[in-house]
Amino acid sequence: MSEPIADHAEPSAAAADGEVSSARFWNACQGGKDNYERDRQAVEAVEAIAPGISADARSARQFLRRTVRWAAAEAGVTQYLDLGAGLPLEPDIHHIVSRHQPDARVLYVDNDPVVLAHQGAYQDPPLSSYIDADMRDTDTVMAHVTECFDLAEPVMLTFSSVLGHFSDEEAHAFIGRLLDRLAPGSCLMLSHDIPTPAIIKACEVYSAAPGALPYQPRTIEQLLRFFEGMDIVEPGLVPLFEWRPDDATEMTEIMGYGAVGRLR
């Protein structure tokens, strides 16, 4: 397993121009090392407006880890499709699920050039691989999924704090196209910020930063729509830290909600 490629030595043109990378911003929020001073300044600016946003980002990462551990250890899922993977931050999905399912397969998807530069950390064949693709391009994504996975068996889709970058119409469309191809027992996991006053202001500040990909929070009612026709795993759609917490779970301000649904 190779180490993540440090993203400090030779700044990209975007970083040199003072632009913020969404992937690096969230990496900085979560305490990662693969970010620039510009990204850390953006985090500080957002944190000044919405104290706790970094803790919220860490909480989303912890939620991702707990949900995939549940899927592997308790639900017996062996196939994982991580959409909008972002920058690697160990332990990543393939590290976690392989402890419980040695024959697991994980496919990471992102189309950020910053993430592409770090793809080596996601490449651990045959356990895991990475594709450079837009998650909305479901034909391309599913072509790779068909090569890597057995679609007669359940697959877990993970959307960790990324759906706010898409409109309702876009998000429901591409999630629906993916779910239509999956077997019963497949899972949909998502984490998402809700429109608290602090989050609304934070999104305004972040979205105004040069190069930032705008992010919009969703209400609990809007998030529930993504699980229509599915069985939501207990404890349901809840604040991130309330979903089957463990010793590593941080208690934070309630900014993000998350859930896992299973296809009937």
Automatic annotation (TrEMBL):
Domain of life the protein comes from: Bacteria
InterPro entries named in the record: SAM-dependent_MTases_sf (IPR029063), SAM_dep_MeTrfase_SAV2177_type (IPR006764)
Name of the protein: SAM-dependent methyltransferase
Phylogenetic placement of the source organism: Bacteria, Bacillati, Actinomycetota, Actinomycetes, Kitasatosporales
Pfam family, one: Methyltransf_19
